[in-house]
Prior knowledge:
The protein has 419 residues and is α/β, with parallel strands linked by helices.
Amino acid sequence: MNSKSLMLLLPFSENDAKMASVRWKRFKKYLEKKGVAFDWVTTKLPFCDESASAISKAACELKVLRHAWRLSKQLAQNHSPGAKMVVVASIPTLDPLYVGAMLKHVSGPQLELVLEIRDVYARPEMYEFNAVRRHLEVFKEQVLIKYVHKVICLTEEIKRRYCMYYPNLRSIRNAVVITNGYDPEEYAHRPTRRIQPQFLDVGYFGSFYGSRNPELLLQALHRLQEQEGDTAGKVRVHFWGDLGGYPLQTRIDKCQLHGTVIYHGLRPHKTILQEYSTTAVNLIITHRTGSAYALPGKLFEYIGAGKPVWAITDDPILCDFMHQHELGYLSSHNVESVQRTLRTLVRDHATGRLSTIDSLKDFDIATLTRKLERFLLNGCSAVQQDEADGRSSGEGRSVVRTTKRLPRSPLVVGEEPDA
Length: 419
């Protein structure tokens, strides 16, 4: 980057366990190796309670405006006058864009505002706000986004949707997609748990929330236990993370899965990364609806660990990604599908057909950081040219080898063949 300095506006601190923080800690590490001065600004504005009266909401919005204006002026004063500055505002929430747009207004043309869109925000297909609040958030986004020079999206689907929301904005049309990734250096430590090769160890790393929970898996294990006790006895499912109100122990008791399902509680992210290598297969569970535009951040960490991935999902974007890179196993959101995949996993594990996968270099954080730096310096056309050159030369890619090629159907891998 010409200016060798970058300011990040993010709603989470550098030590937060949120994937957004983990993503930018990785970028920060590699950018600083290149001599980039990196300024991380945790950006949280006052929150307006949806249950408040109209007058209270109006007063709160004025408070938000004052806080954003005060913070932007403070940041501008801390910056050398006349020096070029690149500011990345990462949403959601809108707080970083709010402050970034005001900072742009205060600083003038020497500031380049880059918007990172990690998630679809406040749209009708989302349920985080009521209708009135949603319209207000979209209105603010429409006003603030006009200050943006460049845009980064985490997936092609997020970019596609925002191109529909803002068809006339060049910055959106020229957005670059930079996914989450993995850092190979984070897998250098030894695992803390002893691996028992006689068991098929399935690992789930993450929180439960709403329909993203293990209910179908527990039901499938219970049915497998009743119908094929020997098969079920070879499975161990390990959960790490926040239960989010899901009554895991109660369900373990009711399904009689003691010894089969083990909850390890909350662990630091550094420890969790070490545990990825102690399993035979790592699990992703998506929401039944509302997440079809995103790829889970831990998917890329699983890729870095080199273990097969099992996804319980009906999200087309995730199914397509699993197919494209042949990462492992897919189940649909129903008990029969999950049970069939469990049976296949046990069989493949017993016969030695479960294998490690080669880490995809495209998602190595060093590769992604080069793409980020190239985009911030030269824009979308430079990134597109780099990708075209990479495709023609074959550089930066590695072939994934798995024991099973995923079918093109987004339903199930590992279905028993017809007799």
